[in-house]
Design a protein that fits this description.
Number of helices: 4
Radius of gyration: 16 Å
Distance between the termini: 33 Å
Shape: flat
Strand order of the largest sheet: 1-2
Strand content: 5-15%
Structural class: alpha+beta
Order of helices and strands: HEEHHEEH
Number of domains: 1
Helix content: 25-40%
Length: 161
């Protein structure tokens, strides 16, 4: 039961429970994000989901409009506290992880779960080993082991090999 639908029901229950708590965050942050540079409130990123399906992952936008896409040598996205592409509110959003809270909508839609492997960029699929592809058997999560214990301090291929 849990494997075939119980986890989804638990995710949906908690997502609906947290939605009223998240709405005030949205109403406070939305105008601040918008007025920081008159751009969209959300950043919608394509990510790999369950069974390799691509979905739009929602985040609060933390970077300036038309910021260049910088990558680390391993292909992961550049992430630094000193990133000049961040808006003034964006730095706070990232440090507090509030930029991730719109993923609650992804949980409600069924694209994500609360706990699971973080979704990768679609172009990283070509770099997957057969073992790496196993993580596509389940829904990606808002948080997982790496986020809880390493918080952006290890390269994306740390556990490979």
């Amino acid at each position: 039961m849990y494997k075939n639908g119980g986890k989804r029901l638990i995710d949906l229950f908690f997502a609906i429970l947290f939605l009223p708590l998240w709405l005030p965050i949205l109403f406070i942050l939305a105008p601040i994000i918008y007025f920081s540079d008159k751009g969209p409130i959300f950043y919608n990123a394509n990510r790999l989901g369950k069974e390799g399906n691509i979905f739009k992952m929602y985040k609060f936008r933390s970077m300036r409009m038309n910021a260049p896409d910088l990558r680390n040598p391993d292909g992961s996205t550049f992430n630094s506290e000193e990133d000049p592409r961040l808006t003034s509110i964006g730095n706070f959003l990232r440090k507090s992880s509030l930029d991730e809270t719109p993923q609650l909508l992804n949980v409600i839609k069924g694209d994500m779960s609360f706990i699971g492997p973080r979704p990768d960029l679609p172009e990283q699929y070509d770099l997957y080993s057969e073992k790496d592809k196993d993580k596509l058997l389940i829904r990606p999560g808002i948080t997982g082991y790496n986020q809880a214990y390493f918080r952006n301090t290890i390269p994306c291929d740390y556990f490979a090999g």
